[in-house]
Amino acid sequence: MSSYPIYTPKQQRILLITSLLVLGGFIIAGLQGYVSAFFGAGILYVIFRSPFYGLVYRKKWNRTLVIVGIILFSLFAIILPFLVLSFLLIDRIQYYSQHTDQILGLVKQAENLTNFKLTSQENIRKILQQGGTLASRQLPSLAGGLLDFLVIIGLMLFTLYYMFSEEETFQEGLRRYLPFKRDTMKDLGEQLRNNVNANVLGQVIVSFVQGILTGLTLWIFGVPDAAFWGTVAFFMSFIPVLGTPLVWAPAGLIQLSQGNTSQGVGILLVGAIVITNIDNLLRITLAKRMGDVHPLVTLAGIVIGVPIFGILGLVIGPTILSFFIVLMQVFANQNRESREEAEVDEAKVETRAEVKAAKGV
C-alpha cells in the first residue's frame, strides 16, 4: 500500500492556509472580549518606545527596572486616572437617569428661554433612562464587570511587559511576518508613532485641559455639580467640532433662563473666548510636535471604536482608522515602486534586444 500523501503540493498549501485561517478565527473569537487589552498594550508600547530605548540602550539602565517603571507609570498616570473619570461619569449618568426631575426642570427652563418646545417630558425621561443603560454598557463599571476589568488590565500590562522584555524577538517577528520591505517598515513605524502621539497623547492632553477649564469655569460661576460637568467636557472634547460647547453653552443658557445674567454671560464669554481658543492653540501646537489627524478621521474612528471597545474606543478607534489609512498609503507606494521597477526591467530588456539586433545587423 502506497504511503504517499493524497494531496498535491498546491492542495497542501491551500489546506495549510485554510487551517491557519480557521484556527486564527477561533483564537480571535475567544479573545474578542479582551482585544482592547492588546490594542492598549500596542499603543503604550509605541508611546514609551523612545524613552525605553534611551534608558536601556543609551544610558545602559537595567532593563527590568525600566520596564517595571514604565508599567507603574502607565498604571498610575494614564490608566487609573482615565478609569476614575469613567467611574465618576457613569455614576452621575446613572444618578440622573434615575432622578430625571432635575434634567426635566432644566429642559423646561430652556424651553421658556427660547420659546421652542423640544419634546414631551415623557420622551425626555425615556431618553435619559436609555442613555443611562447605554452608558452602563459602554463605560467600565466596577459593580458590573470587576473580573473582566482586572483581566483586561492585567493582560494589557503583561503584554506590554513581554513586548519590552523580549523587544528584539518582537521586532524581528514584525520584520519577518509583516509583508513590507525594510525601508517601508521604517516609514510605517514613523507614521504609526506620529498617529499614536496625535490620537492618544495629543487628544488626551487637549481633553484634560479643556475638562479642567470647563469644570473650573462652571464652579466659579456657581453651576451645581461642576466636577461632573467637567468630566463630561473631558469626554466630549474627543468629539471634533462639537466638543466642550455641548457642556458650557447649555450651562450658560440655563443660567440666563434662571435670571442669573452675569453668570450666564460669564460662562458663555469664557467658553467662547478662552476654552475654544485654548483648544485651537493646543491642537496647532501639538500638531507641529506630534502629528495631525483630520477631524473627520477622528469622528469616524470614534463612531467605529466606541461600540466595539467601549469608552476606550475614543482613543483606539481613531488610532485604528488612522493606521488603516497609513497602510493604504504604504500599499499604494509599494505598488508604484513595483510598477516603476517593472518598467525599468522592461526598458533594460528592450535595450538588450536592440543591442543584439544592432550587432546582428
TrEMBL record:
<protein>
    <submittedName>
        <fullName>AI-2E family transporter</fullName>
    </submittedName>
</protein>
<feature type="transmembrane region" description="Helical">
    <location>
        <begin position="64"/>
        <end position="90"/>
    </location>
</feature>
<feature type="transmembrane region" description="Helical">
    <location>
        <begin position="200"/>
        <end position="221"/>
    </location>
</feature>
<feature type="transmembrane region" description="Helical">
    <location>
        <begin position="227"/>
        <end position="249"/>
    </location>
</feature>
<comment type="similarity">
    <text>Belongs to the autoinducer-2 exporter (AI-2E) (TC 2.A.86) family.</text>
</comment>
<dbReference type="InterPro" id="IPR002549">
    <property type="entry name" value="AI-2E-like"/>
</dbReference>
<feature type="transmembrane region" description="Helical">
    <location>
        <begin position="261"/>
        <end position="278"/>
    </location>
</feature>
<feature type="transmembrane region" description="Helical">
    <location>
        <begin position="12"/>
        <end position="31"/>
    </location>
</feature>
<feature type="transmembrane region" description="Helical">
    <location>
        <begin position="298"/>
        <end position="331"/>
    </location>
</feature>
<dbReference type="Pfam" id="PF01594">
    <property type="entry name" value="AI-2E_transport"/>
</dbReference>
<keyword id="KW-0812">Transmembrane</keyword>
<dbReference type="GO" id="GO:0016020">
    <property type="term" value="C:membrane"/>
</dbReference>
<feature type="transmembrane region" description="Helical">
    <location>
        <begin position="142"/>
        <end position="164"/>
    </location>
</feature>
<keyword id="KW-1133">Transmembrane helix</keyword>
<keyword id="KW-0472">Membrane</keyword>
